[in-house]
Predict the 3D structure of the following.
Amino acid sequence: MCLHAIRTGSWLAPKAVTDVQRISRARLRVAALCCVAVTISLSIATAMARVRRGTHHAETSEIAKVRPRPESILWPLEIPGSQYAPLSWSDVTGWSDDDLLAAFKTFRVSCAPVAAQSGPPPDDKFLGNALREPCKAARGAQITNGDAARVFFEQNFVPLQISRLGDDAGFVTGYYEPVVEGSRTRSDVYNVPVYRRPSNLFVRGYTQDSPSLPNKGQVFRKIGRRKLVPYYDRAEIEDGKIAGRGLEIVWLKSQTDLLFMQIQGSARIKLEDGSQVRVNYDAHNGYPYTPIGRVLIERGIIPKEQMSMQRIREYMEQNPGAADELRRQNKSYIFFREVPLSEKDEAVGAQGVPLTPGRSIAVDKSLHLYGTPFYIDAMLPIESDTSSTPFRRLMVAQDTGSAIVGPARADLYFGAGPDAGRVAGRIKNAARFVLLLPKDLDPAARAKTIPLPDERPSARIAKEFPQKPKAQPDDVKGPAKDAPKDSAVKDSVGSSKTGVPLPGARPADAPKEAASTKPAGDSKPASDRRDTRSRDRQ
């Protein structure tokens, strides 16, 4: 059975983007809307032409047809919402100074589940199954020092800077495993329950005996035999909706301790007899996570530049009445399960392997594969709230979280206990992300298998409606014959060396005039047109 923790939240959103970034994104959105408008108009023209022809046959063959991608892929290679730019190893700041032996050991831990995977590669992730070969090499390598580890990574990977489309940097936060006091029995001191997953909690696509449920999506409870309704929110659960059902694992001193446990996804609970209980994420109630820190900032209670987990805890302990209302702004609620880990064991991440403090990160699992190495380059407040310490380390994706969204977004794992919590609570900084791409993965070769849009309607209509030139007087035919064939194209489209070519003129409802020259849409070589469309779709 795979027992693992799943990060469920983060206190803060990324810092506000600059004006330049906002303008850049606005231009990208405008360009995208223009492309959509052109596509819709051309699609309508194509449909009208098909109706006039009376074509009622199935179009399955046209939809399924896949044309080859251009042989040369232009960088940055943009993958859903992302952009990649190739680097040399000398461009990776601090690469030669990092303790890559520690990074190699963390990577090799991730290789066990990677090697155990079978079947075709996941098509929804760019890396596919490309980590299998580097993992095979890592498991067979005898590496005992940093220099050998550096050679291994440079022989098996190439560095690519990665960011969200239009951005030049990513964003990192920190997380840790809390250590709190608790009891197996309820008392006046320990009166806050830590619940296991209720039996009336349902997630579509999962059975009641599933080892762990997702940390996003809808969750239901059953009323009667068939009716499903949304599960209870945080306020209803805290008010006792599921109390008395034997779901209590342990009891804590405060709701604040429980809230921090739920955000981090795991915890170590010290009992009164000196023993320890380890709990990990098991399920959630289906409501989206609301950052408590953001609520405090919006209300003007804590300035954004002073926000940290420590400030939140201080506020809630000093204002218990307000803390109840504030906590319930986050309707999300996490259920745990007890896991058989010793005091020496680290928490287990979503990949199913033990996390390594300072080397494990949580990433967006919808975009990235577990086991992928990322080099993080940032200036972080490690020593204090105001410090700016260089943080340049090779880390490995071994965990995820509901608040970790985007191609260059990560949570850095700092370990267990209050010291790790103080450092993790201060992290909310911009960072440079360098993804290590396996050399066996050829971006150009993999991209060729992705279907392209259908042929431009203007070109197809010209083929379907061949037109005979009208007879013209001699005084008209001569100059037309001698005129440059592509002059009209250059005027309407412009030089191919500057800007993106515009689509050809929309065809008329009926072919009335002569077509002695090619339509504007056909004036460029076919390979150039494919280049333009492929970059627009990526």
